[in-house]
């Protein structure tokens, strides 16, 4: 026990030794978990490499069949054991690993920092910014697809060419090529859902978040849809050549149902076409609604490929649907909206109540849903608050851009005194390393908002006198002068001068569309703060599973998967197997995979709901206290005040911290920042962290400068929310 007033006789030296011993044990545990996960992952990838070979198909499979394809699991046994169980095992171990993971310390070597930041290898459209690690893994993945296609074609052309239709040899080979193209497309689906699992336990292991890895989902989606389209077109041509076009609509009860594949491909094409950048960025509603056809796409695709192939890609889908259902449970609660600030730039800052136990890292995002605007749409916004500085509130900034945000702005500008809002998240990196000699933050427009949370994190770290705080240069480009109102959000409302005394912040602001300060800026634009009345159903934003969220997520994953295995074994042994054995008929091909999908959803529903309700019951007292605080919040009348940038020169700002913001800022009119000059001027520092968030052109320019090799002390990281 730790020495205290209740236990004054505890030996302090013994306690210190115990703490040191405990830290060593934790370190050993982390290393053991890491080595275990690496070993399992290497084995899992080895199976993916070998599964397309003649050796695996004709030598290993017959031997494994008698052990794995039992009456309890049927023909899906091999894939279930070799391809499903390992990744689910890693997912469970990763929860424990992330829970005990050591946070970065100030004393760690900077060489490790450089390795984690990742060196940019190339910047090119349409791939964007590609690091050495991304390029290496992409190359290996393409090599895997090429290797698999080559092996599959070898099996078809030289080992066993299927020609049940008595077609010509070249036609049979043409059909085999189309079949194997579809097989290779299936490889992409083994990884497709990992990047879009927002509360993923897999992505943090490699330093990724769902937001930063969306591009991998896009790449995999394009590759798989192209391969599936080629698969479909080749079969249509083959059936046309052999006078079997009606096979397109065939539904074989004991083999692959072609109609299911046709339906899946039609849905897939609709989703694919509407996912291109034109629709994602300019017609978001079309992209949003068509992409929610993924449920139907999955059902018909799985019916087409069958239960054995379903088990090959089950892990990433199983984890995705656990995450999706937990997000649904979180989003059913109404969040307490405390206030809204309407900036002089007509942008918004919304402040919500949160539980003190909710922790998140800088650059995190929060998804918002406002039923009065749209019953279905959820939109992500950057969190500007800091969970260490602001224990009870969480703030997001919203730029008025697009139909949804315009409607929200109109709602908040009206005379309403309450607004129903649901939230989901926060989501962000597992950790953010800010240990540099200096930090250069480059932003364009609303891209400045994630850096507000970064600066607030540095303010928090500065409270520890032993922590070294990097010098910060914020380079921000805005179109118009009134956009400078974003800078008023850098400091929390209740910050004191002593809190920012150790922060060395310099701001270079560039106004690109105006040559001078507009005359109308004087006293004409007010920063309006609007307070909202608490409602009975409102509650603070809280972790979906309460404290130790990641451990309880591991419980959900483990319990739901074990339950799934047990139910599959029972249904196969006592329902499906007797049909095959006693009637002499083959159990319906489609029904097998429908059982798998149904039981998987049931297990996820039962396990997630049970853990969620249990944690809700355990945290009930804390929730009651938080709700009392929400209901007791005083309701203020709307207020207006001039922004820091819209005061007359002879009017003194009331807040000293905001004076320091204005004094630290140099405003440049009618020009864009010379990024090359700015970055190279930092060459005097040994270690310079460079973060950029803004338009694609800006991100690419900064990435090219940092990867040019002309300044080796620049360590680059991009933040992008352009999906």
UniProtKB/TrEMBL annotation:
Classify the protein's membrane topology as the record does: Multi-pass membrane protein
Keyword Transmembrane helix in annotation? yes
Its localization reads: Membrane
User: Transmembrane helix as a keyword?
Assistant: yes
User: Which residues belong to any copy of the FAD-binding FR-type domain?
Assistant: 330-433
Q: Which domain of life is it from?
A: Eukaryota
- Supply the alphabetized keyword list: Membrane, Oxidoreductase, Transmembrane, Transmembrane helix
* Regions crossing the membrane: 32-56, 76-100, 121-149, 184-206, 218-239, 259-279, 309-326, 550-577, 597-614
First-listed, main subcellular location of the protein, grouped into a coarse class: membrane
What protein am I looking at? FAD-binding FR-type domain-containing protein
Q: Which organism is it from?
A: Brassica napus
């Amino acid at each position: 026990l730790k020495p205290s007033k209740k236990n004054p006789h505890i030996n302090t030296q013994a306690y210190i030794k115990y703490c040191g011993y405990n830290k060593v044990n934790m370190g050993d545990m982390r290393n053991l978990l890491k080595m275990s996960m690496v070993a399992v992952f290497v084995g899992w990838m080895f199976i993916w490499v070998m599964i397309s070979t003649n050796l695996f198909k004709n030598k290993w499979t017959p031997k494994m069949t008698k052990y794995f394809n039992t009456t309890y699991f049927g023909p899906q046994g091999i894939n279930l054991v070799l391809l499903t169980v390992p990744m689910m095992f890693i997912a469970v171990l990763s929860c424990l690993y992330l829970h005990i993971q050591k946070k970065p310390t100030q004393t760690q070597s900077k060489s490790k920092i450089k390795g984690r930041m990742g060196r940019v290898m190339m910047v090119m459209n349409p791939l964007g910014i590609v690091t050495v690690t991304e390029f290496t893994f992409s190359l290996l993945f393409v090599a895997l697809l090429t290797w698999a296609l080559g092996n599959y074609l070898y099996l078809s052309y030289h080992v066993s060419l299927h020609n049940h239709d008595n077609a010509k040899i070249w036609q049979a080979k043409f059909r085999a090529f189309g079949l194997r193209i579809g097989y290779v497309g299936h490889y992409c689906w083994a990884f497709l859902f990992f990047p879009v699992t927002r509360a993923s336990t897999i992505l943090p292991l490699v330093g990724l978040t769902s937001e930063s890895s969306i591009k991998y989902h896009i790449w995999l989606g394009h590759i798989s849809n192209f391969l599936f389209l080629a698969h479909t077109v080749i079969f249509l041509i083959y059936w046309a050549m052999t006078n079997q076009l009606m096979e397109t609509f065939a539904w074989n009860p004991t083999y692959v149902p072609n109609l299911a594949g046709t339906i899946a491909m039609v849905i897939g094409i609709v989703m694919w076409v509407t996912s291109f950048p034109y629709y994602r960025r300019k017609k978001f509603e079309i992209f949003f609604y068509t992409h929610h056809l993924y449920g139907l796409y999955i059902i018909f695709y799985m019916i087409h490929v069958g239960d054995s192939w379903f088990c090959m890609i089950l892990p990433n889908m199983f984890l995705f649907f656990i995450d999706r259902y937990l997000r649904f449970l979180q989003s059913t609660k109404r969040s307490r909206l405390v206030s809204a600030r309407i900036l002089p730039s007509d942008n918004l800052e919304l402040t919500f109540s949160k539980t003190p136990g909710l922790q998140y890292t800088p650059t995190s995002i929060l998804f918002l849903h406002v039923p009065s605007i749209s019953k279905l749409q959820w939109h992500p916004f950057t969190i500007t608050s800091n969970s260490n500085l602001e224990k009870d509130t969480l703030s997001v900034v919203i730029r008025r851009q697009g139909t949804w945000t315009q409607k929200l702005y109109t709602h908040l500008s009206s005379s309403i005194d309450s607004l129903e809002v649901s939230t989901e998240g926060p989501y962000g990196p597992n950790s953010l390393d800010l240990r540099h000699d200096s930090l250069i933050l480059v932003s364009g427009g609303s891209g400045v908002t994630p850096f507000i949370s970064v600066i607030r994190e540095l303010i928090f770290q500065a409270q520890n006198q032993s922590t070294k705080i990097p010098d910060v240069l914020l380079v921000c480009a805005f179109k118009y002068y009134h956009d400078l109102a974003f800078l008023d959000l850098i400091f929390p409302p209740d910050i004191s001068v002593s809190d920012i005394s150790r922060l060395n912040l310099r701001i270079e602001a560039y106004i690109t569309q105006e040559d001078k300060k507009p005359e109308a800026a004087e006293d004409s634009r007010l920063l309006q703060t609007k307070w909202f009345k608490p409602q009975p159903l409102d509650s603070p934003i809280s972790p979906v599973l309460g404290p130790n969220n990641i451990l309880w997520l591991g419980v959900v994953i483990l319990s739901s998967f074990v339950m799934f295995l047990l139910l599959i074994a029972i249904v196969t042994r006592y329902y499906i197997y007797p049909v095959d054995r006693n009637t002499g008929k083959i159990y319906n091909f489609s029904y097998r995979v429908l059982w798998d999908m149904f039981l998987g959803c049931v297990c996820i529903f039962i396990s997630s709901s049970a853990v969620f309700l249990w944690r809700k019951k355990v945290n009930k007292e804390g929730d009651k206290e938080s709700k009392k605080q929400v209901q007791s919040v005083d309701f203020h009348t709307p207020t207006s005040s001039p922004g820091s940038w819209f005061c007359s020169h002879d009017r003194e700002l009331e807040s000293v911290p905001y004076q320091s913001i204005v004094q630290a800022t140099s405003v440049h009119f009618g020009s864009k920042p010379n990024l090359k000059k700015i970055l190279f001027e930092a060459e005097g520092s040994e270690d310079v962290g460079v973060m950029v968030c803004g338009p694609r052109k800006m991100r690419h320019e900064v990435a090219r400068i940092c990867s040019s090799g002309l300044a080796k002390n620049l360590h680059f990281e991009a933040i992008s929310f352009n999906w």
